[in-house]
Design brief:
CATH topology of one domain: TIM Barrel
Helix content: 25-40%
Largest sheet: 8 strands, mixed
Distance between the termini: 54 Å
Number of strands: 15
Number of helices: 11
């Protein structure tokens, strides 16, 4: 039986062991990291409250009020938002070796390279995706040369089905879908046939197609009719010709039908030709909101109207969406589209500990469309820190 003297001597011995080496720990902390006091918004669980998030072994261990700070590391999130790590489904991060690290600082814990390369050089973007700290995958451009100044598929021979199928077969784990860029300066009059060939490739591997819409030669309704459940329309706010609204500002019937059958609609902010405030106003007035937010990111994003994913999300706070709605579009909704993100976009216990800490500031903030038009909003999200697999990175 232990008496007081025996117990105290045992504690002293344990303390001496800890002071000498790290092989024995007297009382290991319950968690590796705790995010303290943030406004936790997790749309996957309809959660919006001031709480703490505890992390252990790279997983979410607890989400509760006032978790004791017995952790190796504490992240002070008071006055900030703590949300699931952001997922950007339309980037060109795979074009740049430094890209994954840059978007990680923006809160992005998962990304898709949306068609930077086609069959001829797809391994280039795959190499960047494989080496990224986050979960990352690529879409293969149906144009075998990838994005090129003269237009990816202006020469229809570049939309080579066999070459794309061979590239996917070699890299099936890393290729998450097929990208078809359809605007008139990319595909010209070939747009419909380019999309038909992209679907031929995608269906052979049960993959989605993402289309780059806006300013097409073929009417958008005819193109949309080729889309199947799980496909993605990016640049959904592109202005005419061939916007998703008609001349009277009504959503065209083929778009409504596509959403009903399970086609996703994505912002794809971008820099040129993809967003114009007057077109956005028409679409918002028609109550047609995005499923997902994305940046169309590249390394000069911070010098343009894109800036980062939180900034792109903030434009829709200005347009009337709530913080929970815009966060859903960059977390739980995005996670549903590509299998690589399944189980992410959530702060559920047991999920990977990917967390974005965001600063939601009040004030006057200018937001740009792609035509140098400015709107002023009164809230903006700023990245304040990222936790990836339980490891904290400053913004």
């Amino acid at each position: 039986m232990l008496n007081r003297r025996t117990l105290l001597s045992g504690v002293a011995a344990a303390a001496a062991t800890v002071s000498i080496g790290r092989s024995v720990r007297a009382a290991a902390p319950a968690y590796d990291l705790v995010v303290k006091g943030g406004r936790v918004i997790d749309p996957s669980r309809a959660l919006d409250a001031t709480m703490d998030i505890a992390v252990a072994n790279g997983k979410i261990a607890a989400v509760a009020a006032d978790i004791p700070p017995g952790a190796a590391e504490v992240v002070d999130a008071r006055g900030k938002l703590a949300v699931p790590g952001l997922i950007d489904i339309h980037t060109h991060t795979g074009r740049f070796k430094e890209g994954p690290g840059l978007v990680l600082k923006d809160g992005v814990t998962g990304w898709i390279d949306a068609g930077s390369q086609g069959a001829d050089h797809i391994e280039d973007t795959i190499a960047v995706a494989r080496s990224a700290p986050q979960q990352a995958r690529v879409l293969i451009n149906i144009g075998r040369a990838g994005i090129i100044p003269e237009g990816d598929t202006m020469d229809l021979n570049r939309a080579n089905v066999d070459a794309a199928k061979d590239a996917i077969a070699r890299n099936r784990q890393m290729i998450a879908g097929v990208k078809a860029r359809l605007s008139r300066d990319v595909a010209g009059p070939n747009d419909y046939e380019v999309l038909r060939r992209a679907q031929q490739v995608a269906t052979a591997f049960n993959l989605p197609v993402m289309i780059h819409m806006g300013q097409t030669i073929t009417p958008l309704g005819k193109l949309i009719d080729l889309l199947k459940r799980g496909d993605i329309v990016t640049h959904m706010y592109a202005p005419p010709p061939n916007s998703i609204v008609d001349d009277q500002g009504r959503i065209i019937p083929e778009v409504v039908a596509a959403r009903r059958r399970g086609v996703w609609f994505d912002v794809g902010n971008g820099q040129t030709g993809h967003m114009r405030w007057d077109t956005i106003d028409q679409i918002v007035k028609a109550n047609f909101w995005p499923d997902t937010f994305s940046t169309d990111w590249n390394t000069n994003a911070h010098m343009t109207g894109v800036i980062d994913l939180p900034n792109c999300m903030s434009k829709f706070l200005m347009l009337g969406m709530t913080p929970a709605q815009v966060i859903a579009g960059a977390t739980v909704n995005a996670a549903k589209i590509f299998p690589v993100f399944r189980g992410r976009g959530t702060l559920a216990v047991g999920a990977p500990a990917d967390i974005a800490v965001l600063d939601l500031r009040n004030g006057d903030f200018d937001f740009l469309d792609n035509f140098n038009n400015t709107r002023t909003g009164h809230q903006r999200l700023f990245p304040a820190g990222t936790i990836l697999g339980g490891k904290y990175t400053m913004a």
